[in-house]
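Task card 7
Instruction: Convert sequence to structure tokens.
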Amino acid sequence: MTQTRRALAGGILLVGAATMLANAASYLLSMFAARWMSVPEYGALGAMLSVSIIGGTAALGVQAVAARRVALAGAGGAEERAAVVSLGLRVTALIAVAGLAVAWPLASLLTVPPAAVILTVLAVAASIPGFGALGLVQGEERHRHYGYAYAAIGVLRAAGGVIALAVRPDVTSACAGILVGSLAGTVAAVWFAGPVRPRRRLTPQLVRELTATTGTLVALYALSNTDLLLARVFLDGQGSGEYALGALVAKIAFFLPYAVITVFFPKMTAGTMRHAFAVAVGLSAAIGVVATAGTAVLAVPLVWIIGGDKYADFASLAWLFALEGSLFAIVQVILYAGFSSRARALGVLTAVGLVVQIVVVSLWTHQSVTSIVLTSSAIAAVLVVVGVLVELRRSRGRGEVPAEAELAPAPERDMH
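Output:
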């Protein structure tokens, strides 16, 4: 047991260090952008980054399906690896085509150049094979290779954006740099994961699993990012720029405990650790408490470091965004617990939360930065309470056999 705990702690620390490095690079991109761009222009870039995060749920869906399938397959997962790689390539093409189709209407709605939207969509598509590679090494619990691949994706993407902003500090230039960096990050991640020859045909079961997983992640990431898009629509340029800075604080809090779900998801899937869900929720909540309290205490220097003097009036609100991000991080743990057993109820609940957010903010609470972030945080808090209760009741009510039993026929069903 001591050896197991030591290995678990080592995995969390290793993946956590890589996650912090990748996210630090992303935050540096936003910090340079906040300082080099005007407040309204930074608001436009913030909207594009939110579109990127929401669209990137397709990549996270491929990663989650890959990790789940490989974790269940164990050592005999060559066929599963080939299937999920093929799936990722098809999703890449689909996202590129669908994104280009909605680029012009989206650009008009968000008042950003169409070229910036097109570049953002292509960057999302380019990242999908890289996240598929992450899923392979995550499912195999190869924490060292996961750390290398994750860090490469985050650092190269951010480096591309920073270099582009240094050349020309506008939203289109930044999006072009992010696209180049995303391509480089995908190449690096695939190299770390190792070569896999994709399968030509996919089974309906695999497609349904990806659709359900991605749909739930779309609801989560849309819910945790649509508030910024709504701020872009309803607030003035100054307000949307401040909300973009607040969204950066929320993202820091959201991704701080990401290593926890990365390490615990395969264990929840394969059933190799008792109480994995409760431990993951507890660790994520503890990190969230520290992040929110730390932001409240250090708000003034933190906001100055991120955005400079022009955001000084925003400092008193920073802790609200840290709280929002921390709550959504716990929601993410709950949803991944559902993925591990293919439960759907919590995904539906998150989608309902997204609809409530859009309706409430659009009709009633869009007057200020404070009213929008409080609405989003309240919805996240409700999801946490209900989600934890539902997942604990469901996990007590099911047997411990399903994970391995479910896997046994899967490779045969997928062979064509």
